[in-house]
Amino acid sequence: MPQNNHYYYDSEKCEFVPVEYNTKNKLIHSLSFWLINGIVFAVIGLSLLTKLIATPAEIALKYENRALINQLKTAELSITEIEHQLEQIAELDNEMYRSILGLDPLSEDLRMAGVGGADIYSEFDYHSKEASEILRSTAARLDRLERRIGVQKLSFEEIKSYYNSNQNRLRNVPAIKPVNGIIISGYGMRPHPVLGYRRMHEGVDFRAEVNSEVFATGNGVVKFAGRRGTFGNLLEIDHGFGIVTRYAHLNSFADGIRVGAKVERGDLVAFSGSTGLTQGPHLHYEVLKNGRQTDPLQFMIADITPEEYLMFKEAQYGDENAISYRN
Fold it and tell me: Which of 14, 98, 136, 239 could form a disulfide with 172, with the two C-beta atoms 3.0–4.6 Å apart?
């Protein structure tokens, strides 16, 4: 193949003359050409490699970021559990403590303690999408938890203050179990064990053999002690403040129990039996507030823990109110 020559114009000769390179110039030209091209290709190659293959420091940083994101996800699960526990505390606060004391329940809006305004989590937008979403969610939920815990703390302080100034009333509250036995049937709709159709069960039934001791659940005055229809032998105690307790299917009454007699919480008032409309011996126990039946579980704050209360409530509504569980 003929070699390509370069020419220059010689004005004196008026002709193109081929450029002649000596060996040294040719070598320098060739080396310069390949050196420049080599540098260009090396730069391009390194640029591609840095994108495809990270440095050890970058690899370590990626693993660290992934570990932090996983830890944040674990924290989110913990926050979910704390939120659930706080909801249970709020339920107890409204249905149990505030209800017994006669305090108005706190509304859901007040308990959620919402806030508005500018986006206070915009600083997280500088991170990756996944990290930004987790950081925003975690920060928002933690802030909300802090506000809700503050509301709950104020509620407990209100309850404590009310208790300290109303101890006479609280001595009358029916706050203990009336008999040393397990609950075998809860409050609410259920199939009647004798009549066979669904009807409202307006109290709770305790397992109790004939002549088991029955105790007053709060201070009060005997309102009724005698025979009454399907209740059989029935005892009613007026605790004042609109609260009355009933003890049904009794075998007999304790000494001194008659209308007008004063009793205190824990006093022996009767003995269980199976009188009236019943399949067998047990104690039927009711709590009436302002003339209306209410769930006695809401009042047994001295004999059951908050965890037991929630378990009993779940059992009541989870098995058509025909339940059996131990205290």
Answer: 239
- Smallest CA-to-CA distance from 204 within 327, 323, 290, 326 is with 323
The end-to-end CA distance of the chain, in Å, is 105
Same domain for 14 and 141, yes or no, is no
Please give the structure tokens belonging to residue 39: 């540098």
Secondary structure letter of residue 2 according to DSSP = P
Split at pLDDT 50, 70, 90, the class of 87 is confident
Among the ranges 68-77, 130-139, 182-191, 203-212, which has the highest mean pLDDT value?
A: 203-212
Under 8 Å CB-to-CB from 219, ≥6 apart: which residues? 171, 172, 239, 262, 263, 264, 265
Structural domain ending residue among the three candidates 131, 165, 199: 165
The pTM assigned to this predicted structure is: 0.54
201 shares a domain with 314: yes
Same domain, residue pair 90 and 117 = yes
Q: 235-269, pLDDT tens digit by residue?
A: 999 999 899 999 999 999 999 999 999 999 999 99
> Is 63 contained in some domain?
no
